[in-house]
Amino acid sequence: MLVPLCEEQLRIIHACASLMYMKKRKRKGKGFWDEEYKAESEYLAVSMNPSEDLEKFTRWLMRETGKKYLNVTASVLDLGSGNGRNLVWLAQTFEMRGIGYDISSEGVKQARQYAEDNNLPIEYTARSIAGDLDIPDNSQTLVLDMMVSHFLNADERTYLRNEIYRVLRPGGFLFYKTFLLDEDKHARRMIKENPAEEKNSYIHPNIGVPEHVSTEDEIIDAFSEKYIVHKVYKSHRHKGKTAKRRSISVYLQKPEY
After folding, report:
1. Exposure of 132 by Cβ count < 10 A (0-12 exposed, 13-18 middle, 19+ buried)?
2. Which residues on adjacent β-strands are paired with residue 214?
3. Cβ–Cβ < 8 Å for 197, 154
4. Which of 6, 149, 201, 251 has its Cα between 20 and 30 A from that of 173?
5. Does pLDDT of 2 surpass 50?
6. Is residue 23 part of a domain?
7. In this structure, what CATH number is given to the domain that contains residue 227?
C-alpha cells in the first residue's frame, strides 16, 4: 500500500532535486562534456553511428575522385572526435588511419577502448583544439571540423584555420560544419538574451561557455582565400517556435601545388 508523503518529505525531495539541477547547471566546458559522455547523457544522443553529413560528404568525394582520398594510405584528423564514431566509421569503411582530438577525457577514454577492442589504427588525445596541432605539415588527407570550432573565440578560430591548412596535404579536404546564423530566429534570440563578448556569439544555456554563430558570407570569406570551395549545403529554415537550429556544411580543398 502506498503511503502519501507528508509536506516535509515533499519539501526535502524538492530541495534535493533543485540542488542536483543546480549542480548540473554549474558544469561548464570539459566537465559538462565528461558527464554527457557517461551513461546518463542528457544533452547528447550518444551512439556509434557516423554523422549523416559525413556519409553524404564521402559519397560526394567518391563520385568526384573515387578512392583517391578514401583508402588505406589516407589519414584523417577529427577535431572534436567525441566517442570516436566518425573515425571508427572511416577506418572500418575505407581502412583509413585516424587522429582524434577531444576536450572530454571521458569521450576519449571510450573512443580509445573501442579502437583497441576492434584493432583500429586510430590515436586519440584529450585536449582542446585551440593552439598548435601536434601533427606534421602536409600529413593529413582529410580534416573534420564538425560542430566544434564555434566554441573558440575569433583569434583561436583564425589560428585553427591556419593550422588545418598546414597539416593538410596538397589536394586534401576539409569538411567544415557549423551553426548558421542566416534566417535562424532562435540563434538571434539567444544572442540577444545572453550575449557573449564577441559579435554574433552567446553564452550557451547548458554548457555555460561562449558559442559563435556564423553567417554564410563570414565562412566563405574566411576560407576562400586559401581553399577551393566545392560545395555549400545549408539546412532548411525552420518556421514557428521550434528550437531546431540551422547548420551549414562546406566542402573545402587545399589546392595542389
Report:
1. exposed
2. 180
3. no
4. 201
5. no
6. no
7. 3.40.50.150
Determine, yes or no, domain membership for 105: yes
Dump pLDDT digits (tens) for 156-176. Answer: 999 999 999 999 999 999 999
Domain carrying residue 121: 52-253
**27 vs 110, residue with greater confidence:** 110
Sign of the Cα torsion 75, 76, 81, 83 reads negative
Instruction: Report which of residues 17 and 90 the model is more confident about.
Output: 90
| Average pLDDT across the chain, whole number | 88
Q: Which residue has the cell 563520385?
A: 63
Q: Quick one: three-class SS letters along the chain?
A: CCCCCCHHHHHHHHHHHHHHHHHHHHCCHHHHHHHHCCCCCCCCCCCCCCCHHHHHHHHHHHHHHCCCCCCCCCEEEEECCCCCHHHHHHHHHHCCEEEEEECCHHHHHHHHHHHHHCCCCEEEEECCCCCCCCCCCCCEEEEEEECCHHHCCHHHHHHHHHHHHHHEEEEEEEEEEEEECCCCHHHHHHHHHCECCCCCEEECCCCCCEEECECHHHHHHHHCCCCEEEEEEECCCCCCCCCCCCEEEEEEECCCC
Which one-letter amino acid corresponds to residue 151? F
First to last CA, the chain: 79
Task: Please give the radius of gyration of the chain, using alpha carbons only, rounded to the nearest integer.
Answer: 20
* pLDDT of 9 over the 90 cut: no
Count the domains in the chain: 1
Which pLDDT tens digit goes with each residue over 62-71? Answer: 999 999 999 9
- The answer to whether residue 181 sits within a structural domain is yes
pTM for this prediction: 0.85
Q: Report the length, in residues, of the chain.
A: 257
Is residue 57 one of the residues assigned to a domain?
yes
